[in-house]
Amino acid sequence: MAKVCPNCGYDLHPEPGYYLGAMMVGFIAISIFTVPPVVMLKLSGADDSVLLAYPFLQYLILGPIITHYAKVIWAHLGYKSSFK
Ligand SMILES: [Zn+2]
After folding, report:
1. Mean pLDDT of 24-37
2. How far does residue 12's CA lie from ligand 1's centre (Å)?
3. Helix/strand/coil (H, E, C) string of 27-83?
4. pTM (2 decimals)?
């Protein structure tokens, strides 16, 4: 990720550990993508191995994408909440 926005010069790394909050955004997103499908699989009578494998396979596919966009969302939240 760039140090500053190339368009407006907004500081994208204002302090060390700034993107730790993005972990919470990622946690919420991955929960939304994981819990309802697993509950639906459980209710449909899927095998326990499927219930265990689903989150792992999903994380392999969606993990890098969600991690990236969680940082993007966090940067936007920081931009929107900063007073200029
Ligand atoms: Zn900008």
Report:
1. 94
2. 9
3. HHHHHHHHHHHHHHHHHCCCCHHHHHHHHHHHHHHHHHHHHHHHHHHHHHHHHHHCC
4. 0.78
